[in-house]
Amino acid sequence: MNDTDAEAGLSSPSRRRFLRGSAAATVFLLACHVPFSRRALAQQPTNNAPPIHKPNLFVKIDSDNWVTVISKHLEMGQGVTTGLATLLAEEMEADWSKMRFAFAPNDTSVYNNLDFGPMMGTGGSSSMHNSWEQMRMAGAAARAMLLAAAAEKWRVPEAELKAENSTITHKSGKSATFAELGQEAMQQPVPEKPALKAPGDWKLIGKQLPRIDSRGKTDGSGQFGLDVRRPGMRRAVIARPPLFGATLKNFDASASKKVPGVREVVKVPGGVAVVAEDTWSALRGRDALKVEWDSANAETRSTDEIQAEYGKLADGKGLVAANRGNATGTLASAEKKVKSEYFFPYLAHAPMEPLNGVLEFDGNKAKLWGGSQLQTIDTNVLAKTLGIEPGAVTIHTTLGGGSFGRRGTAVGDWVAELASISKAIKEKTPIQLVWTREDDIQGGYYRPMVLHRVEAGIDKDGNIAGWQHKIVTQSIFASTETPFTSFMVKDGVDHSSVEGVADTPYQIDNFSVLSYNAKSPVSVNWWRSVGNTHTAHVMETTLDELAKLAGKDPLEFRLQLLEDERDKSVLQLVAEKTSWRGAGDKRGLAFHKSFGTPVALVAEVDAGEGDFQVRKITAAVNCGTAINPDIVAAQVEGAVGFALSTLLRNQITLDKGRVVQSNFHNFIPTHIADMPEVEVHIVPSTGTPTGLGEPGLPPLAPSVGNAITAATGKRMYSMPFLMT
Amino acid sequence: MDLRHEYGWPSPLPPSQRVGPAATLALAALLLVAGCGERKAERPDNAPPARASQDGDHWQQIASVLTHPRCLNCHQVEMPLQGDGRPHIPRVERGPDNMGVAAMRCSNCHKSGNNQASGVPGAPHWSLAPESMNWSGLSTAELCQQLLDPKRNGGRTPDDLAKHMGEDPLVLWGWQPGADREPVPIQHDKFMEVFRAWVAAGTPCPQQEQSEDSA
Amino acid sequence: MISVEINGEQRELDVDPQMPLLWALRDHLDLTGTKFGCGRALCGACTVHIDGEAARSCSITVGDVDGKKVTTIEGVSGPVAEAVVGAWRDLDVVQCGYCQSGQIMSAITLLTKNPSPTDADIDSSMVGNICRCGTYQRIRAAIHQGAKKAGGEA
Asked: What CATH number did the domain enclosing A268 receive?
């Protein structure tokens, strides 16, 4: 059932076009059987009525007249299952109270992310954007087939029929449920190009519908990867090296094997795995292990040494990420200038559900259960590690207990670990790999450390004269060959290192951005909003400084630099909703566009000597059509909560290479007492939806930072914010 | 570094809600992160006793135990400390019965013994000492006065105090805190001997010094 | 053998008495609604009720609950629990949902003991339940709504 995507060339443009082109035609029915995890369906709030027609690609109707949306995307909190269901139900005329979801199997030929090319995966705030047409087409095709079936059955013209609330009704009053018509509908031809509703006819899109994953997440029934149970399943934990880049020298498992419940202790590429009958025994077995590591190629520097190294790099020659006009020349003659250095530490994602997965491998076929975020990569990594064909790998995606980017890495790290354990063990039992919180916090794949140097100035009219910007960081996409590398890295410049600066929507005529790739064995990864986590803060803090130098209102200063009405719309809306008071306003303003979505925030902060408390964040977003405005609001609220931890206190630091932080006592996420009130306003739009899982995050730091500056005069040049 | 943020620890109360200098000091203690040696060095209780008498030595020995984090961490105003005197994570509060608030009770995590798996310490009736028995920010002279004041020692006579130190399982935990926690500096037998000697000598206290409050 | 009443049912647990209750619930009784988040009583994802009190099951041994009554998210009942869970659904509090079992368990305890909590009361009782998705604003609102719904008890 699996496409051999590896051979097909993951980034082949012709293949990508083919799949995009064929998507509309194949959305609804294929004459193949797609296996659904019964367990995944069991978490839905209804009985497990047998399907009355073959399950197809994006929609399934059961005999109880519930409609199941098949989600090709991982639900990790962003509300994607509700969003996809909304699109489907809208066009299908399905009853919202009888919608449920199941996760699609790993089949890149069908479930690819249309924004990624032939790659099944979730990320880059792309889910609703890439599914916008596809899922509505699927719904419209299903409705057309149900209508055609009813017309044929009742021998009436289709024009006399109406689809509503999962029922087809004839003007005579005769009616049948979708379930009753399902079998006949399956026999109807799949419409090539079903007509989609005009925005004015939408009943569900844009409405505040309840989430379809809410029930399973409030009664304990929702199944996350760590909740998967398979017959005979054993638990495994891995002892990993204490230093990044260190490798296993030798180990003594004699004490470990004496721990009751421990079954096997095996060497795996990443360290030593302890396999036991339950998690507690596995953990105790690991505690009893004696391991020696070879640190010859390990990172042994401390954070301050790495930071100093970054500074040296920035003194040298960089790679050109953007260059227009003559920034050096105009800056030399600028009226007033700012020159600043910013520093950002490594950050762990720390999703509440630590990494985990279950793998069943019988020597020929492999089945994975877990919060797989990049199923295509995970499929290929499993196949390669186990020495089987990708087609012999099945992934049962489960709910992800948060991710923020961690569950999907270019090397499929946790999936590879699982495969290596399954390969190494003698007793071929299903294995559940469990990461502890310590494994997670100290396990790398961090948001990279970053150093920015920016020099910018204004002319005598208070307009930006020139802007020179240097960014030193570890490249995420160039460090390993990933399926994304070819389109993310150009001439050595990793776009994710400079995004938000090099492609700023601000019209700055004399502008230069240089990129510097630092090296370290510390693994790095995309972390909710990726490069924008740091670039937004530097851009928006610098703009605030320049506006102040120019004696201008920071709002007007920004509006004058923007051209796109959509970008301006969020600044205008947030100004209106907060009654922005111009140059002397004591609140903090910030704007940033990422993943196609502009967001403006106004922060109200109590700040004094050595302390601050964020009281309120008012947000304006323009994400095209807000498919579910309440989930849009929730994502912005959540982005504020997530980002706040990085301003307040979160950082991963190294002491001679060792990660200092280990759990939530010294890497403390935002808690309820930190949380400000968040008010979200959405610019009305019926355009194609753009990202929203990430764009709320980047402007938080500069909005709060600018408010702190307004209150104290102090600028926030590093994260976490140093108040003293 | 702003330690409040590093520890996710509560906003300082607005000035109107501060209950005099003790609260300010409690906050100072909250913001103080150091090994116990360093921490003690911050305290102005290193003034020599007025007389280098044996009684004074007794009291200084007693004080070295009472001001140790194993004791002092829970003789706080509103929120306990942990480890070597850092803020308790997660944030917890005294509550009406010194055992926390509705869904954040001491016993939600602390049971009758240390928990090996989580590292959470435990002993019977794990709780903050009553607020009247707050010792944070006191000089040893003030601590001595307070320890003998029935209004601020739980209504105890010196003999009651000896019993408390000798038998209370939560107090005794300070001598055997387990894991990598540092026990109080003097062995229990020896401590009791010193304590009884101090009681027998009439519980002499050092002369009043300037406390941190008034300094 | 440890005997404990779990969600109204008497269960015998033949495990190491030092095993954290969390792992006994999850691995031996397949009650997976109680979540592992930190293992050190720092995040609240594993919160259950023991004899009506909130408790961090990662920091409580099976031996500690011998002869006691344990309630997990799968077994909560009564007007306060219904009001809390109902409010959680009404306001769509959840995002990833992983921490929410623990949040709900703490909220039920809070409202059982304090039927009309202020924002400060909510902070004091919920500060030990971490939500990485940042759903706190809705948690606060849902507790207030739950308090209103369960108002008959107040």
From this structure: 3.90.1170.50
